[in-house]
Amino acid sequence: MSTYFGPQQADDPAGPQRCGEAPDDFRALFLGEPGESEEQRAVREQAAHDVLADLLEAGRHGPVDWLDALYAAHLLCIADLRKRAIGGELRAGGVGEAA
Q1: Does residue 5 contact residue 15 with C-beta atoms inside 8 Å?
Q2: Could you state, in order of their start, the residue ranges of all structural domains in the chain?
Q3: How far apart are CA 68 and CA 62, in angstroms?
C-alpha cells in the first residue's frame, strides 16, 4: 500500500509538491485534452470513473483520500458541463438558457 499526501505519492522520487497542487495529468484525466479523438475520450472517461471509484473506496479509510475523491468528482462535473456546452445542450434550450 502506498502513502499519499493529497495527489502526491509520499515516496515519489520527484519530490513533494506544494500542498493543494494537483498534477496536470490528474486534471487531464478528468477534464480531457484538446484534440482527443472520440475513442481516446471514451477510454479516458472510463479510466477517470475507475480512478474515482478507487478514491471513493480509499476515502472510507482516510480524510486525505476522501478529499482527493471529492476533487476528482468536482473535475468530472466540470468536464460534463464542458461537454454539454460544446455539444450545444446548454445553448439550445438546456439548463443555461434564460426564459
Answers
A1: no
A2: 24-86
A3: 10
Task: Report the candidate in 36, 49, 40 with the shortest Cα–Cα distance to residue 80.
Answer: 49
Phi, psi of 4 (to 5 degrees): -120, 145
pLDDT, tens digit, 9 for 90 and up, residues 23-75: 678 888 888 888 888 899 899 999 999 998 998 898 888 888 889 889 999 98
CA dist 4 and 94 (Å) reads 40
Q: What would the DSSP string read from start to end of 31-83?
A: H--TT--HHHHHHHHHHHHHHHHHHHHHHTS-HHHHHHHHHHHHHHHHHHHHH
pTM, entire model: 0.58
Residue 14 CB contacts under 8 Å (≥ 6 apart), including other chains: none
Alpha-carbon gap, residue 8 to 79, rounded angstroms: 22
Number of C-beta neighbours around residue 82 at 10 A: 13
